[in-house]
Amino acid sequence: MTNMFKEAKRRNRVFQELLLRICDQRPPVYDSGPDIILWKHAQDDYQKTFSTRATWEQVRVKREKVDWSDVVWFKQAVPQFSFITWLAIKNRLSTGDHMRMWGVQQDCMLCGEKNETRDHLFFACPYSYMVWVTVTGALLGTLITPDWTDTMERLQRDRVATMDKVLAKMAFQTTIYHIWRERNARRHGKTWIQMAQLAHQIDKTMRNIISSLIYRFGSRLEGLMRRWFEVTT
Ligand SMILES: [Zn+2]
């Protein structure tokens, strides 16, 4: 059965269910007064005001919280970087191993390795590993590793100091974003950026992010900048 027919059948079933529910309702009584619009906020909780949050809570499919969620979504994160990181964690970036299914041969644009995978790019690739070490070497110390699974596990560890953990997660997302952008730029024939220069760009982006956080949330976040200077200069 094609997808189109499956979809038509599903819609028909949804429509039938809807019709049954409408027929189940008692018809409106004129004497009860005019109709008013109420928005469902929760089970048996109807109000006159609309709430995006309450509506989203009701329509979304709730699943168990995944253990990596704090690495992707946290207060200091940049949404654009979180999104690329989320794609990387779900292994949905169009790396060479995925592109092979479409008949495209894609070697690693950063080092020439034949098998470009998510785990290779972050950070088994010599180029990206050197960038990662340059950016976070002093912050992570012995916790630094080229292995994807180990990196994810270490970013989630509780025994790392809170401020360092926030900085490590921010640096992780910023590095993933910049490496993926550099990989795509090279693929599209743009000028190549050398390792040291990319690491410098990531450091600069980190400083800009922290500055804007201080601007938004106040001087209590100045410690974040102080610590970042400590581990990068
Ligand atoms: Zn590589």
Which helices and strands appear, and what pairs or packs with what?
Layout: H1 3-24, E1 39-42, E2 45-47, H2 52-59, H3 69-72, H4 79-89, H5 96-99, H6 118-124, H7 126-140, H8 148-156, H9 162-187, H10 195-217, H11 222-232
Antiparallel strand pairs: 1-2
Helix pairs in contact: 4-9, 6-7, 7-9, 7-10, 9-10, 10-11
The structure holds zinc ion (ZN).
Give an overview of the whole structure:
With 233 residues, the protein is mostly helical. It has two domains: 3-59, no CATH class; 69-232, no CATH class. It is 60% helix and 3% strand. It is built from eleven helices and two strands, in the order αββαααααααααα. The chain has helices at 3-24, 52-59, 69-72, 79-89, 96-99, 118-124, 126-140, 148-156, 162-187, 195-217, 222-232, and strands spanning 39-42, 45-47. The protein has a two-stranded antiparallel sheet with strand order 1-2. A hairpin with a 2-residue loop joins strand 1 and strand 2. Helix 4 packs across helix 9 (162-187), helix 7 (126-140) packs across helix 10 and helix 10 packs antiparallel against helix 11 (222-232). It is extended, with a radius of gyration of 25 Å. The termini are far apart. The model has no long low-confidence stretch (mean pLDDT 91).
